[in-house]
Design a protein that fits this description.
Length: 232
């Protein structure tokens, strides 16, 4: 497929750290400057077998769109501004490939990720099976998952030809000690909830999709003055 070799960056103000690797070797000082570790980034990684709807879920969440066509992904990164501990923070969503051709990329995404969305399609038992090695790899790399938000997601729940029951999904999630939701990127069912719940699972920071930043002193002063103004 023509889109098979695509590697793009989308979303407003999106930056893909991999793109920095293309800087010529003699420009190493520049490379260090363009890829600082952004401590206020919150990195969510979306995993799952090919065609389960990872890109569709992410695009539905980030852009509010849905396409019936299927273009396989290699890796895309999207960025959104959110609130973290009442400060502005960047939610970085990595939409990974469903093909198993890039294990090194998968390991890198796991080690850099703060939270994980493990997606299968409710129309394919095989896609649920394919999540198991990914989950094991996350456990291997991250160790204890108690402090790491993980969400098991059964997508395409608008489809009638179901191959995995809701109960089976919930039971697997229970055995993995993670949260579970069924979603539909097509009908926009539970998509925002998925990201909201994932952020709420983060116990080390207070995360919210809504921007609730602390007001600066000058903002507070302006608001106070506004309240005292009388239209003559
Ligand atoms: N009915 C239905 N179809 C969906 C849904 N989500 C995605 N699809 C369709 O499933 C196909 C694959 O969707 P993608 O989002 O590209 O799947 P993916 O998991 O990103 O696939 P890879 O990038 O190859 O790993 C597309 O034709 C989508 O239109 C959904 O919720 N319901
Ligand atoms: Mg994709």
């Amino acid at each position: 497929m023509s889109g098979g070799s695509r590697m793009s960056i989308r979303g407003s103000a999106s930056v893909n750290s991999r793109s920095a690797l293309t800087v010529p070797p003699k420009d190493r000082s520049v490379r260090l400057r363009v890829m600082p570790e952004q401590s206020n980034d919150y990195r969510v990684v979306v995993f799952g077998a090919a065609g389960v709807g990872k890109s569709s879920l992410v695009l539905r969440f980030v852009k509010g769109t849905f396409k019936e066509s299927y273009i396989p992904t290699i890796e895309d990164t999207y960025r959104q501004v959110i609130s973290c501990n009442k400060q502005v923070c960047t939610l970085q969503i990595t939409d990974t490939t469903g093909s198993h051709q890039f294990p090194a990329m998968q390991r890198l995404s796991i080690s850099k990720g703060h939270a994980f969305i493990l997606t299968y399609s409710i129309t394919s038992r095989q896609s649920l099976e394919e999540l198991k090695p990914i989950y094991n790899e996350i456990v291997l790399i991250k160790g204890d998952l108690r402090d790491i938000p993980v969400m098991l997601v059964g997508n395409k729940c608008d489809e009638e030809c179901r191959d995995v029951t809701q109960r089976e999904g919930a039971e697997l999630a229970k055995s993995w000690n993670c949260a579970f939701l069924e979603t539909s990127a097509k009908t926009n069912y539970n998509v925002k909830e998925l990201f909201q719940e994932l952020l709420q699972l983060e116990k080390r920071r207070t995360m919210s999709l809504q921007l609730e930043t602390k007001k600066t002193k000058s903002q507070k002063r302006k608001e106070k003055l506004k309240g005292k103004c009388v239209v003559m």
